[in-house]
Amino acid sequence: MIVLVLTALLTIVPLVPLLAIPAAGAIAVLTVLAWRRRQQAAASLGLFSVTCIGLTVAGVGPLQVLFPIAIATYFIVVWRVPWLRRASSWLKWGALDATVLAFAVAIATVSGVTLLAWFAITRPDLSDLLRTFVPEQPLWVLGPGAILFSMLNAAIEEAAYRGILLSALDATLGPGVRAVILQALAFGTLHLYGGLPRGVAGVVLAFVYGIALGALRRMAGGLLAPWIAHVLTDIVIFSVVIALARA
Q: N- to C-terminal Cα distance for the chain?
């Protein structure tokens, strides 16, 4: 129940930012309760959630900076607490045979085409992304930078959602469809006000994308395949952003 409530709070807060303060208090209380009961799944998810909240309160951002610090803190604590170490069992490569790789490329291809269609139809205002992620540098610098940034961004988001969150949901609900849907829903709501895609359509698209990556995580038995699919999709995203900056 603690895992489900934590997941619900992480899903709702991006939709209703005014609930951030009471939600933060509830997450802290639930995390303490999980630790006192030594509930590995709940304590693991609570640890990551509380760390993210603390960093947010401290003014750390954007998410591409906040999440790596939170995940690094998560691993430091997990490996120093013996009873919690099994909660990091999600950290494994998994299979990458021809079938898995084909699905990863297919997901990235469909996602990339969908993103381009979404951009062409909605023409969103991406000035915030341009200011934050596209410095005044020549293209030969921005190109490799976009690839490296895509690799990092994909790694931290996969660790957070297809790693920590999905693992906690699996331990609570079993490794079935419900866990995949709930982690995808939390991933989707994160895109309402920021990132790309964004808005209501962005939430829906990211939700479907999260289901696809969750299913790929199931198929592969690890994070490497969804990470590859995510990197390829992010490269499309940053290509669009760079193209806008150069337009």
A: 50
pLDDT at 239 over 90: no
* 41 CB burial (10 A radius; 0-12, 13-18, 19+): buried
Is there a contact between 22 and 5 (Cβ–Cβ < 8 Å)? no
Return the residue matching tokens 């291809």: 109
Whether 45 contacts 165, CB under 8 Å: yes
Q: Which residue has the tokens 């992480």?
A: 10
pLDDT category of residue 72 using cuts at 50, 70 and 90: very high
**Closest-CA residue to 124 (of 116, 113, 135):** 116
Do the beta carbons of residue 100 and residue 223 sit within 8 Å? no
DSSP letter for 19, please: G
Distance CA 227, CA 144 (A): 18
Residue 234 phi, psi (nearest 5) = -65, -30
Residue 225, CA atoms < 13 Å, CB-side half-sphere: 25
How many CA atoms does the CB half-sphere of 204 hold within 13 Å? 5
201's enclosing H/E stretch is helix 199-220
Which residue type does 145 have?
Answer: G
Instruction: Specify the pLDDT at position 127.
Output: 81
Residue 198 — left, alpha, or beta (φ > 0 → left; ψ -120 to 50 → alpha)? beta
> Which is it for the CA torsion 93, 95, 101, 107, positive or negative?
negative
pLDDT of residue 31: 95
